[in-house]
Amino acid sequence: MTQDHRSGAFDRRRFVAGTGVLAVASTMSLLPTAHAQDATPVASPVASPVEGGSVGDWATFGYDYGQTRHVPFTEVTKDNVGELGIVWSFDFLEDDESIPPANQSYPIMVNETVYVTTTYNNVYALDARTGEKKWKWAPDNIGFFKNFGVSANRGVAVGNGSVFMMSLDMHIYKLDAETGELQQDLQIWDVVPDAKPEYGYYESTAPIFYDNKLFFGSSGSDNGVRGFFMAINADDMSAAWPSPYWTVPPDGQDWRANGANHGGGAPWMPASIDTETGMLYFVTGNPSPDFFGEARPGSNPNTNSMIALDYATGEQIWVQQSLSRDLWDYDMAAPPVLFTATIAGEQRKVVAEGSKAGQWWCWDAADGELIYDGIPFARIDHPEPTEEGVLVYPGILGGANYAPQSYDPTTNYYLIANVEWPSFVTKAAPETVERRGRGDIDYGGTAEFSTEEAPYGTYVAIDLENGEIVYSVETPGMLRGGFTTTASGLGFYGGTSHADSNLHAIDTSTGEDLWTFGVGDSVQSAPSIYQLDGTTYITQTVGGASSKIVTFALGGDTTQIPAPEPPVATTLVAPEDPADYLQLSPDKDHVIIFNAIANLGDANSGMNFNGYHHGEAVITVPTGWGFTINLWNMGVLPHSAMIVTAEHVDEPTNHVAAYQGGYTPDPSIGFTGDQVQHFVTVEAQRLQLQPAGEYALICAVPGHAPAGMWISLIVSDDADNATLTTPDGTVYEAQVGAPEAVEATPGATPESDAPHG
Amino acid sequence: MRARQTPETTQVDFGFPETRVPVEIWTREGNNNYHLQGTLSYNGQPVAGALLHTNIYRLPAPTGEDGTFELTGDKTVLQRQVLSAYDLTNARIGGNSLDTEAVEAIEAASVEVESIFEIEVEPLSVPANTADAVLTGSMMFKGGEIPVPTVQLWGYVLSGTVMDADGNPLVDANVSIRDDEGETWSLSTITDETGEYMLRFYPLGGAFQMRVAQGTRTFESDQETVFNPETSAKMDIIVHSDMGMAMGTGTDGAWEITDVPGAEYVGFITGIADGDIPVKDAAVSLPDDTGAFTITLPALPAGSAYTFFQERFRVFADEPLLPGGVVPKELIPDKLEPHIPMGIEPAITIE
Q: Theoretical Cys-Cys bridge with A700: which of A178, A503, A642, B267, CB 3.0 to 4.6 Å?
């Protein structure tokens, strides 16, 4: 197949290799395998690539079992792509307000139904033509998931009339595809020993259904879990393999000897399957502790690796490690892609993947022979982390993050959506690494995103013929959704930032952007493309601050959805009138706001709140009311605020708070007057004043309370309302109100807006 | 080695040359599985096309034309697999489908395959009605050179009871603890029917946030340094109905954490049992770093016989469990779980 690489004039940025390209020591661990396979002819364009599937379906995660994400539909072309418009959309946040924002789900379309998920493991079945909701299902204890920092779900598998979804708390739910009724609930640790959330495992990805079995791994690589891959029988969810395929040694053995909480090698994304050879391929994450190699000596085999198993038994066939002893969190995150390509003029079946390391590998599918060795597609410059810290390219988001990649057989190009944002990585001091908790994140250091370089993205095409970068095009923001390509020569991807909250279509052969359509928020997945009644639908979830799905077809509504407004920083203005020092919350009943202004004027040499000191001002509050403090500091010395019981006022230091949370952050250190601080954030009811008694609002910086920096606080069973009694005897009843919020300007301090006096 | 099978179906044979597989140390090569070749036969005739499964997994392929099949298992773990046929719809003997009697006999049959540590014990016969006879032995990986892993500290435990302001326990509530530095990952657990939670981990230093979630309600605390990193701790949590949460039982709502001794330990033991009923009065020691253990027998009646069982345990012990130390009696179960290897010889007979 000859290649016509670049034709026509267009604006593109050529890739420039970074300095200090890392020489990759790829570990070869070839095992004897089946003989090399003959090249497979490309599937007929009218056949479904999924067993028993209908033409036009998008029936498995990556369109076909090789996850090429390349559809044979040619209705939408380079010429008419501008006629794409929205034919239906569904807003998950509007449908159910308990669903949080952001969405990384990759939709499935079978049975004329789109199956899609949201954060917190909600599953929706929508009519594929109209978007009308057919059913929705969610696990019972959704509140449980609020305790997980990670909340994404990347989709379901559908097979034999059931929908399968994996949950954050390590269950696999089997639902009736027609009705959404729960058919079976499997605890993954019943088939994978110890694969429980409390040991650091969680599921954020989609399983794969094939041959009446379900194939899955898990997340948790950075938590030091023992990575695995497993198969169950779809009919009764019993184990299909005699044991999981474990990627790394057992707890406390081999390179995990320094701690059972060190581990990794967990696969983030679904597997690809060769239905002719029966081989299954998946890629694994990095070893933990991240950044700290001494705790896990050696090359940490099977981490950052492409692994090939027998799908029926789980037996290992071959393993190739892309990066040994990873010190930068450079997972192979995106799924592997299995396809037949023309390489140096010859057809070969290969598996390939571009990783967070910003490099792309390609191996022979049958025996793992290395074909292309770590071709750089991102800026690369990553010295080993030190305790002082180093800047590394790529940063810890990559490179290529989880975003699936696509292979286009027409051009013979492999497409990657990429992130460009370096991180400043600091290696931990050794004594802190060994004290990590089992099951919690096992970071051997810290990583901060560069604040000097703004993040952006690129999309890159690699020519399988020779491993060369054909084009690398910069985008205004990161790309973390992935690619889907068509036989008509289009490549679809979404921008993962507010700077580029668009779905794009490019000319796959040239990289030229042909179509940009505003979808209103960050795109965190790639589109699924399906056909019904001859109409091609392109369906895309949208995340960021939203959670919705929009579906395009020719002739749809071309009204674009504008990008969200950037948030405006605000600050509060300290009230000037003493009648406003104590207010009633306008949002919640029986919650008061006390606007404390430290060092307001020179009374008591500045050791005062609102000019009051030595308890001469008294706040009286009914028992059980909520209490919010806003604290401004007008002075040069640091101050804080804390509620204590009255007998503790005169202690010079080490104050004991009367209520947990009843103090400003770091109360013994305090803050100086360039910011407003609050305590009792979010919901004021958390701080309920009880029992009745004598308390004080003090400054907890050592020495300040004994010097008189406190206000009396009486919690009374007899009071009906909150009052502030000032030293001259005036009683102010709290009225509904709150300090004014104004836009914060850089460099301005609240002082300039606050009263002096 | 005898294959343990259900006696009334001796017409059915699974044809394993052996049914004991020694546990091997994990290696980097491949899957670390054992593969046992078997042949299913009925009255000496091979049974083709039978679908087999164990309590662990379903075999991917039916028995071959010659009745052969392969049983696979993880050779690095203590395990018992019980193999049987579950679907004989397409099974054939000599090309003919099975009659009712054959189906019933085959479906009722099973064979057990166990992966166990090698045990060497001496002496094997002990006097009757005499207490304090001591058996000494060793538990080793296959090959007899590498001893079984010694008992290890798994982690400390933070536990307590979650209740509402009236003292009623919160059942099936999720309790989680998270370090808000950097990414927000979480350790969590569910309260049991008494409202008790148990979080197992090595405590981190620094500030923590704790949450209790039940249904759609979430109760939160502020960040607070909690733990002495060298000990387990108890902390009850009182959840106020209006979204507040107080830790501990102090009337002023302050944190109240009580350090408690003990931790969770994981390790391996062997003991003696009559079938699946352990002899709890036998004082068993934890294998030391050479794999050596002792069993001090109570007085036992003449003519009684016992075999060994092996178990991987994870338990909370108030006193530290150390290699070579005595296993507290309460850690020995009253009855052995069916999945653990038992009936292991050499047996002990009381003379």
A: A642
